Amino acid sequence: MYKIIVFLLALAAFISCKKTDSDDSDNNEKDKIKTAHWLLGQWETKSEDGTLTETWKKANDSTYSGQSFFLKGKDTIHYETILLQQVEDQLSYNANVRGQNNDKPVVFLLTETKENQLVFENEKHDYPQKISYTQVSKDSLVAEISGVQSRKSSSEKYIMLRIK
Questions:
Q1: DSSP output for the chain
Q2: Rg (CA), the chain
Q3: For residue 105, what pLDDT band results from cuts at 50, 70 and 90?
Q4: Cα-Cα end-to-end distance for the chain
Q5: C-alpha span between 95 and 79 (Å, rounded)
Q6: What is the pLDDT of residues 64-104, one digit of tens each?
Q7: pTM of the model
Q8: Is it the case that residue 35 has pLDDT exceeding 70?
Q9: Which of left, alpha, beta for 102 (phi over 0: left; psi -120 to 50: alpha)?
């Protein structure tokens, strides 16, 4: 009888510790957002036109929230909120600029990822159609927006340094 009880306990322990397919999908669901962990923090670039600041925080295991604003003196020239979200196996960059797009976010989907680069695209958006972030070092990155604007190719690059 003792051997049967030990066998059943061992079998129960084995079954309870075994990973299931649903466990794997839960882990995979968070894998794409993890590729953007290097974005977390506060980034800044200064020019004669003003100061651009982006701040990224981890909201939960599938969402990072961001804010981007451009200050010229004491005036806020541009302000947007961003959600970087993973739903199932798709990572999206959801940018919301007050007063634009009926105050609804514009969604850019991840089209390319490398260890140090994320590229998001939305071909239907007026401008930009592409947003990319490239990590240069632990404390610097390049943010770039690009696409077609007024029937001409356009691109803006921002070399940003970590300030927090």
A1: -HHHHHHHHHHHHHHHHS--HHHHHHHHHHHHHHTTGGG-EEEEEEETTEEEEEEEEEEETTEEEEEEEEEETTEEEEEEEEEEEEETTEEEEEEEETTSGGG-PEEEEEEEEETTEEEEE-TTSSS-SEEEEEEEETTEEEEEEEEEETTEEEEEEEEEEE--
A2: 22
A3: very high
A4: 63
A5: 10
A6: 999 999 999 999 999 999 999 999 999 999 999 988 999 99
A7: 0.81
A8: yes
A9: left
